[in-house]
Amino acid sequence: MKIKLAWRLARLVLHLVQGLATCALVFPWAGDAWRERLIRRWSARLLRICRVRLERVPGEDSLAHALIVANHISWLDIFVINAVHPCRFVAKAEIRAWPVVGWLVAQAGTVFIARGNRRDLRHIFKGIVDALAERRRVAFFPEGTTASQGTLLPFHANLFEAAIDAAVPVQPVALSYVDAGGAWHSAVDYTGETTFVDSVLRIVQGEPVVARLACLAPLAAAGAHRRELAQAAHDAIAAALGQHAASDRTRHTAG
Description:
The protein has helices at 2-25, 32-49, 76-84, 101-107, 118-133, 161-166, 196-205, 226-240, 244-249; strands spanning 52-56, 67-70, 88-92, 111-113, 138-140, 170-178, 209-215. It is α/β, with parallel strands linked by helices. It has one domain: 3-Layer(aba) Sandwich (Glycerol-3-phosphate (1)-acyltransferase), CATH 3.40.1130. The model is unreliable at 244-252 (pLDDT under 50).
């Protein structure tokens, strides 16, 4: 068992080193399409090394140009989404401090938001609108933090305004992680006092994980209010996760 764990960790370290080299040596010269291919392949391989099998739930196609919003469970979420269709992510500033991975996601175009910094938020909001206007795909986690599976926190509505200003649809994405029996995989939860390293070790040495990704019906932003969009996205994701009751308990949308 220890030998298998050591081998998995060695493969993970080597893959991270390869990612560092790609970002430093290839990304400065790569166009957008090439970057996306590299990010997609690298993310998919990271999942395989961690014994996470990606499963697309039948439903809507993944839009190439939209504001993507998803529930937030784990550090794996970014790579699950990027393995399907790479996005420019907006994430909390704490992610930048993750060992190695924080630097890698920054090089992939992730923008970090410091909590409570309104000036930072205004600057980032303009960047999101500009990126969407350039027909780029932008994603963020409107809960603002990770939540245990089975819990869907209220959505912060502020950044939904970017879809309205850029006149692009919002596409909700529902994420879940299950074990071989279809139950929520407890090793994936990244909450409380769990550190990034603790989370990696729990996943790598635990039972294999199935990551389920469901692209849901796009929401038209034209003429909508950001709170309405946020609530509609929340309700769609809650329904996809079978959490109708949880959705009813969290009708308030912040922002």
